Please model this.
Amino acid sequence: METKYLIIGNSIAGVSCIEGIRSIDNVGKIVVVSKEDIQNYSRPLISYYLAGKISENSMAFRSAEFYKENSIELILNVTALSIDTKNNTLITNTGNIRFEKLLIASGGSPIVPNIQGYSKDIQGIFTFTSFSEAKKLKKYVEEEKIDNAVILGGGLIGLKCAEGLLEHNIKIHMVELSDRLLSSTLDKDASNFIETVLMEKGCVVYKNDTIENIYSENNKISKVKLKSGKEIETKLLVIAVGVKPETSFVKDTGIQCNRGILVDQFMKTNISNIFAAGDVAEGKNLITEKSSLIAIWPVAARQGKIAGINMAGGSAVYEGMFPMNAVEIAGVPVISFGITAVDNLENYEILKKSDGKTYKKIVLHNNKIVGSIFLGKIERSGIYAGLIKNQINVAEFKSFLLEEDFGLLILPEKYRKHIVVGDGIEV
Amino acid sequence: MVKPKRIIIKEEYCIGCRLCEIYCVTKHSCAKEIIKMYKEKKIASESGICFEEKGSISFAIQCRHCDDAPCLEACITGAMFRDKDTGRVLHNKEKCVGCWMCVMVCPVGVVKISQSEKRVASKCDLCIDREFPACVENCPNEAIYVVDYEGKKITKE
Amino acid sequence: MAKSKNISDFVIERDQNRCIKCHACVRVCANDVHFKDDATSEVASDDSKCVGCHFCEDLCPTGALVIRKNPSETRENAHWKKEYIYRIVRQAETGGIVLTGMGCDRPYKNYFDHILLNAAQVTNPSIDPLREPMELKTFIGRKIDAVNLDDLNWKTTSIDEIMSGLLELEVPIMFSAMSFGSISLNACKAIAEAAKLCGTYWNTGEGGLHQSLYPYADRAIVQIASGRFGVSSEYLSRAAAVEIKIGQGAKPGIGGHLPGEKVSQEISLTRMIPQGSDAISPAPHHDIYSIEDLRQLIFAIKETVDYKKPVGVKIAAVHNVAPIASGIVRAGADFITIDGVRGGTGAAPVVIRDNVGIPIEIAIAVVDQRLRDEGIRNQISIVAAGGFRTSSDIIKAITLGADAVYIGTSALIALGCHVCQKCYTGKCNWGIATQDPYLTRRLNPEIGTKRLCNLLRAWSLEMKEMLGGMGINAIESLRGNREQLRGIDLSEIELKILGIKHAGESW
Ligand SMILES: Cc1cc2nc3c(=O)[nH]c(=O)nc-3n(C[C@H](O)[C@H](O)[C@H](O)COP(=O)(O)OP(=O)(O)OC[C@H]3O[C@@H](n4cnc5c(N)ncnc54)[C@H](O)[C@@H]3O)c2cc1C
Ligand code: SF4
Ligand code: SF4
Model:
């Protein structure tokens, strides 16, 4: 049978695309290619694996039966190199595959900045975005009995990695270029909270700083030197400064890219039978109303599903989402949505409350919530996500937003009833 | 997709007694004897209910088992899943790692953090093994009741 | 020194071995009896506030609560009973009239308990209601004087003519006047819906017809009382029948007073008075001082409703009830409602409730007899009210001469009422006699309707059994059929007034 649907990438966007397609088309042949070698694993779980909280066989978010039930031909260890958009053919390192509809869900790849003394071949330097890297890292930590480490980057991935390493009783030096941890998702107050928690666990945080030089002995890392002059001896460096959309194979194919691949509301690229979803795609940000990269799991899932439905001839519209994140650092859960830190206070209103153990912040713009942070106490925070998504005017109940017992009850009755009774709830 | 039965909330008849929570906890702790369970602190579960109260209005809300459930999409482990036979959104505590993605996206705010055994997510399962969820069966004023997939009220008679 | 004594009528026994501290009782008691004792972390209660409504007892998931009568006694004294002593104490403290709710609770002789029904044996067969048709249907309103047979040609008097202006009841039981204000809107809804479903009628009381009850207006008997609350031509035209309320069994000769704080927006709209103003029903109608005045009002109403609906008059059963009833027939009323001494109320001075009026059993008998004697019984229907507890009370009332009965208290009991008699406090825990939004939500009208329908169904079945036993297959054949009754333990004068023979006397 001819390949009807070809999917590049076997992570959440790709899998959700399968689900989208199969909700409409039960027979069309689906082929999935992935450059990784494992049938299915959840990327965000690699930090739990590193921490030893889950085993290798618990890494999957969909079982082997999933592929069988949906009759998926899964081709592993194959890297897409380019796309011949005229002849509807994917060019890979092992051959060509023709398709009718193509989904690009190749996710992101870690950014490795130019640092003096860095070379791929030096032992003890890792990135932290794939299971294979995580496995290598874990083995290294255990075999080399690592007791201190440097993590470059205090963003989500850096912190996740720190979480994992802390379970191995490793002293961590975290180097962050900006003035705070998780700078893209948290404000200063929440960041300080996190920093304190980390420091209590024995971490050292260097802010407004970066690594200037990497030193190695016998091809093994031995020391890093920071811009501030500080030198740290270490046998382990994790580079976690971010990911960029994996678009290398789209170059010169005519598929339009900005930082990620540009898509319309149907997740379609400028080429009518080629779709993109997940970390590689730039979809609509509901808050800014602009297309942007929101590299998170739920966005990839939603986009993948929408793409799948449209590829199979259905009609589904991606209404847009907004950045959101949930992390737990040393037992302290944090959830953030949208815009959490603003400089220009004229256009925004800030509500916040803290009691030393918990922190809650709401950012309003024109009486609508555009961002919020929940630290320590996160239950029911999803309700706020709903308010953001549905752009509910909160003027009437603004004074309740920070209340301990905030809930559906104080929401306008119509909206409340919609949530309680209505079907098809989405965030 | 099989559509699940649903619990309908009539907030205008909630009397605020919170018995639904008591019976939910009892049921999910597999206890038959409420008194022993509470007295001997054998509580093995938290209630799947979020109870809200302000002034004279109150209601108990639990997972809506959404048709287009955002928690299913957000779950990074597959612990949150749709039960094929009943259409319910169920949660597998074994698989869950406590990443709180589901807490983050549930617009009803009904995914709780379990304090009892493992620190994982926890929510209403519509009482998997019985016709009437414990909360519904014990609501003294039918402020919560179950409807089938067509929206028809299911009664005991 | 006369120190105020906190009198508790009840004691609350909380079995601490069963109490799981769920605090359900703390949350629900409108009288703030239960509380969480922060010092001991136990749940405790202040018995003196308990009114004995049993709401908490019913709700407690572990059965840890028992509400008992306070066994503490004053020295036994047949005359100076505990209740009188404490009433004096209260009045010495407050200087006010003591109020109460529900009907008279004095142990006056209950004639229903002294009347026995007949059953057919051998000479006339009994009827099995499960096999034979059995009719409980009855009609309320003025019946035509004679059917004009005109050479045995039935057509001259049409069925329409016979039926016009009559209320058709599937069961001879209606829901008595309980206004929105005295009871909650949810209670009104449950009652109105049940009336509609069961093919009978409900009565708005003197509080007007709330907008949300319009769908049940075709089953409503609307009242016009001395306050004339909520009365408009629209009110009359929506209704199935109109009842002029002169008196009420629980408080004959007394007016009513709904304090301003209870006149909420909804009540003000329904009663058509300003929000927050006292709703005062004067003791008399200020335009009725004679039968002639009454006749004027009756016909004013009949004009308004185009002579299409029955117009009735409700009075309390008092000493002169028979001649008054006769006057009411002559004033042109289509039905008369007689409310006996045990008739309920939302609020009445306890001395009035317990000491004024006569039992309904007696009132039915004397009114029926008087109207027959005067040859005007067919011109009016008698609706009896005041304390019907079981279907046998109703059967006996009909046999004594009533066309149908009104039930009030028993309907409320079906809705949850435990007859704690605290209706006047507005803190009814069962959500019935209250307007507090925190309490009214406790009465889910859907459940209420179901329970009321069940009650009517159960009583209908029982009535059919009793009827069949007497060998009678239609309730109309039982009306006034006093040969089916025998008195027991009654004096000659009592038998004479009731118009029945003593047990042992045959036909
Ligand atoms: C450590 C870590 C923790 C995270 N934690 C969270 C979290 O808690 N919450 C959250 O929302 N998000 C989290 N994320 C982000 C989340 O993992 C991503 O948003 C999500 O994985 C994106 O899914 P995707 O399907 O778009 O792409 P990816 O998961 O990046 O998958 C890309 C797929 O494409 C394949 N591929 C790529 N290039 C090629 C090629 N050229 N040829 C063939 N196949 C190719 C890969 O093999 C892979 O199968 C985390 C990420 C990391 C790294
Ligand atoms: S947990 Fe929340 S999002 Fe998930 S199905 Fe239930 S109500 Fe919907
Ligand atoms: S907390 Fe558990 S159920 Fe919720 S998203 Fe995470 S893994 Fe899934």
